[in-house]
Recover the amino acids of this structure.
């Protein structure tokens, strides 16, 4: 006998948790599709030489390799031929480069699949987790206006998920780099300085300031102060964001370009009706220093800042330089849904959902079987998800089963009901019982469920 | 520069093919849920000792193992700690045994995930493919009535998929074994004889008969004839199925048990309204000789018998004997969707779907941007999937893009339309253009799309 168990670092859910998770996936997908993104799925494994174009980084140390029994038996030395994807960005780059001539650009794709990282096993860290990504990829060029659409998608996703108020934090790399250049910080020093400033939350302002004016950087105290002041800028609402932008000291041409783009973006968010309370300029957001070149985004839950960013991304200039000579600029975001779900569950914000099964049709005696089967089919034709009790059991047992399984409606037809052409319905959610003509059962239960949906449950 | 390419043996789809594939996945899932099955997902990798409880079989030779860079560097000899699932049945067994005390029985689950097999690379053979499974698992016992529900689910799935008429082939292991025993064939010889009879399609009746009466089996010619006659039994329609059953020579108690169960099943299919044309008794169906103990199912497309079974399964007596002492009988089926999709595409039955994007809102000049953004949002609020053109381009270019992307509606608002409060809509599917008041655009397009859906497109 072998003890049944999952490998460490995976999140396996019980059915009713899986229903809750699946609803989040569906909501995200529906929203991505509403904004015109197309589905893409890629294989879980890629050829190792294709996946691992950069070597030696931390990511590669976490990569899982896959090999068949045959390859193992041969005992080939060296790196296995295939590796599991560790994110959805490298597969996207490979996909776009491989299918370049079959795609319409700007190419808008969403992808919601699991990725794999050999992380140290630790509470809340996962070796297998869902990422839900969107990207818009241009060929040769991509208008900065696509960077404005992204916060509108983020807003729509988290509004639809209904997990509490949130704020989309906005920054712009041109603004950052332009400002830094204006302070006399060289192109080479900028990423290092930024990396220090990115530690503000962890180390505190005093410590970061000390490092900046210390030997390693040797910034003048007033320059360090201006950087810190700059990184402290936060806006509150649409008008304040514009005002804060205007109030920033004039900088280099790059800085002005970033400011213009950010201003245009705020205007577009307004045109799209994104509430001003949902986004804020936050000039301390750094993210992916070598990668992003325009807007960068992070998203935080207002009531749960400890969770950190729940949706991040930005604008990049070249997606697939390892695979194609074509220039493929893009903008995208990623939601790490497994980790988010786990954190929301820890915080008590999501949990066990009602079953996907709407109704249990009970069976009181064998004579009722054919009728129960036919009634179940009629309910399914009316759009309900139905389980039929296949063997007669005591009603109390069947109610207990429905309750445990999270099934809302229990449909009962005893001799008395049959004689009157009605069925009795127990609504386990409301703790109510009612009778309805058999012919009207499907439409009645549909109405109840639609009301539920209208109330966002 | 690295050539972007996928590993051999995977099916990667272009976006509009992915839309078609996703629609099939959604349809299958919706039907599984309608019949009261609950979602389960398991990790792509399982611990090797848990996954590979039986060793030496063909399956194990095809297993992919996964190991992290760290494990590779250590150069541990022996089998890697983790392996990719090669079907959804072993993970189900592990899942049910592991979570036994948290599940309500009968446990009805569906699972739609990819599985991995190191098959020889060959056209139409895949190393990564989707399986879509349902199973009902009982604790200690499971009524044979659940075996009657399965063909109703198969019928609903393939009716909803709309890929042509199909027939669910039914057989019963008790009928088979009972009949064989009645012919004096020992329990030990039965699987071997069955394996021969299973080759009827490939080898032809003469060759199989020769083997059965030959040295290896040594059956009397009249016994061989009776077996072949038995295996030729096919029914056509509900009444014929009952008649064919009745006409079978009386057999052993086991045979009669099988006949009674099959008769009851036919009655339940009738009660559920499954058309008699959709199922047939086929006493040559063998399948999983060591595994199945009751009903077995195969499903074939009437117009494409060369595709073989597109949905198969059966009743088994013990799901998880490697993991638990509890007896867990079950019944289930599996659809290998990747292979089916590939075959349907080869046969020209599925292909490129219209985009998930319903409408492209065009942009004729920069002044129109805010309005285009706002209009797009209003259409999304009306339930449409919308892409907004972000930079003005010539109308012809935008129409060409929509056409190439498979977007049905193109929404145009020039100065003339704006002055009159209307928009022009090009319906690329119908090749028509019409005008509609801006306020009514969302509801008008919704109606068009609903009509489409009502016509099953």
């Amino acid at each position: 006998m072998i003890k049944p168990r999952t490998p460490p670092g995976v999140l396996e859910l019980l059915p009713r948790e899986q229903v809750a998770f699946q609803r989040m996936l569906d909501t995200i997908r529906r929203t991505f599709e509403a904004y015109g993104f197309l589905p893409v799925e890629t294989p879980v494994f890629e050829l190792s030489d294709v996946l691992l174009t950069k070597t030696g980084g931390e990511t590669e140390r976490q990569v899982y390799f896959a090999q068949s029994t045959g390859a193992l038996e041969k005992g080939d030395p060296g790196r296995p031929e295939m590796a599991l994807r560790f994110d959805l960005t490298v597969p996207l780059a490979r996909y776009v480069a491989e299918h370049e001539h079959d795609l319409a650009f700007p190419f808008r794709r969403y992808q919601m699949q699991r990725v794999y990282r050999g992380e140290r096993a630790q509470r809340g860290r996962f070796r297998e987790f869902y990422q839900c990504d969107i990207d818009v990829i241009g060929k040769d060029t991509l208008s900065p206006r696509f960077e404005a659409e992204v916060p509108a998608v983020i807003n729509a996703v988290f509004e639809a998920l209904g997990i509490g108020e949130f704020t989309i934090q906005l920054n712009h790399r041109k603004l950052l780099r332009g400002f830094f250049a204006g302070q006399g910080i060289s192109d080479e020093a900028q990423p290092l300085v930024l990396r220090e400033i990115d530690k503000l939350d962890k180390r505190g302002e005093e410590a970061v300031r000390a490092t900046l004016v210390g030997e390693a950087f040797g910034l003048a105290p007033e320059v360090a102060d201006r950087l810190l002041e700059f990184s402290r800028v936060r806006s509150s609402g649409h008008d304040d964001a514009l005002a804060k932008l205007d109030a920033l000291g004039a900088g280099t041409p790059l800085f002005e370009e970033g400011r213009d783009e950010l201003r245009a973006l705020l205007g577009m968010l307004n045109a799209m009706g994104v509430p001003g309370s949902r986004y804020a300029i936050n000039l301390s957001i750094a993210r992916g220093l070598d990668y992003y070149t325009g807007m960068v985004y992070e998203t935080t839950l207002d009531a749960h800042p400890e969770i950190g960013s729940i949706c991040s991304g930005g604008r990049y200039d070249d997606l697939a330089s390892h695979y194609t000579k074509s220039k493929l600029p893009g903008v995208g975001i990623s939601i790490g849904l497994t980790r988010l779900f786990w954190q929301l569950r820890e915080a008590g914000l999501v949990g066990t959902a009602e079953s996907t099964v709407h109704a249990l049709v009970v069976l009181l005696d064998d004579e009722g079987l054919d009728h129960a089967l036919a009634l179940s089919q009629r309910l399914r034709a009316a759009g309900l998800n139905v389980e039929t009790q296949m063997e007669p059991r005591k009603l109390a047992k069947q109610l207990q089963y429905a309750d445990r399984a999270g099934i809302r409606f229990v449909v009962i037809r005893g001799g008395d009901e049959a004689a009157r052409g009605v069925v009795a319905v127990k609504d386990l959610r409301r703790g109510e019982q009612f009778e309805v003509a058999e012919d009207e059962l499907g439409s009645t239960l549909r109405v109840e469920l639609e009301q539920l949906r209208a109330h966002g449950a």
